[in-house]
Amino acid sequence: MQIRHPQIKSLQLSNPVILAPMAGITCLPYRRIMKSFGASLVFSEMVSANGLIRDGQKTQLLLATHQNEFPLGIQLFGDDPVVLAKAAEIIKEDSSLLDINMGCPVKKVVRSGAGSALLQEPQRVGQIITAVRKVYPGPLTIKIRSGWDENSLNFLDIGRIAEAEGVDAITLHPRPRSQGFSGNAHWEHIAELKSALNIPVFGSGDIFSAEDGLQMLQQTGCDAIMIGRGGYGNPWLISQILALLAGEKVVYPNSEDKFRVALQHLQLHHEHFGEKKTLLEMRKHLCWYAKGLDGASHFRAALQNTDQLNQVVELLRTFFSQTEAA
Ligand SMILES: Cc1cc2nc3c(=O)[nH]c(=O)nc-3n(C[C@H](O)[C@H](O)[C@H](O)COP(=O)(O)O)c2cc1C
Fold it and tell me: Which amino acids bring their CB within 6 angstroms of ligand 1?
């Protein structure tokens, strides 16, 4: 299959494999790792437009960037067109692309009228895009789910409104809000949206292997795919999809490769956030790197008892060298 180079307004991507925005996951060190495996575009965690205009320190930390990770998409969430436009102006210089979250199912976000709650208010979707479009000249995208629930699958309507108001591309995670992450993603919705619109359409949902990635591109005709949970502890998924697309041999990591990348990830995290936060936040990532290997459950348990970075490094070294020998 020929490698596509999606064009999002002025931004041309080098390939069709994008890192999905994920709250609590796609912080700067994670993005740098995924970038180094070939992601053509990486996304920040979603950032509160309200928080941003109030200039909260926490929000600023979410927005820290590194020169090696560009092009970088920043995702905002909010429900108020005026607030979102103000936030868009603030990040104008820091981002290659701005995305507005219209799919998040998390209660706290939905209760505030943002995320997937917006799918119930198509008119407000239009108002938000119009307001942001006025102030943000760069590539502007939205990310949606298929609808609020099974009885209101309005992704085609939302897509048409977005296109008419000047959005440059749209990502669909084809599950309604009510489905959470259960069952399968309905890839056929991605194909329907692609047929209905002229702007690029990106697909997100259930890509856990290189073959899945290729199949989503082939079955839906979408312009690019997003890597979400499939990339946990497995940045190789990106290079594997790219290899498959290029007709090259797909390479799987051995224990030594996993150790090297897990360690690099840990070091980048430490560099950016310091020891305390790294000990807290890297545990899940390190368990994902270890997943499926002999002794992974012991490793997970031992990791819970560490309170210093050098202990974690030693544990990693021992675990991966033993699994190599096994
Ligand atoms: C932990 C987690 C956090 C997420 N946070 C966001 C987010 O901040 N913004 C967003 O648009 N989607 C978010 N998503 C949805 C993903 O971007 C993606 O659309 C979804 O996980 C489906 O893709 P997957 O099956 O490849 O994981 C999140 C998903 C997960 C699992």
Answer: 20-25, 45-46, 75, 101, 103-104, 143, 173, 204-207, 228-230
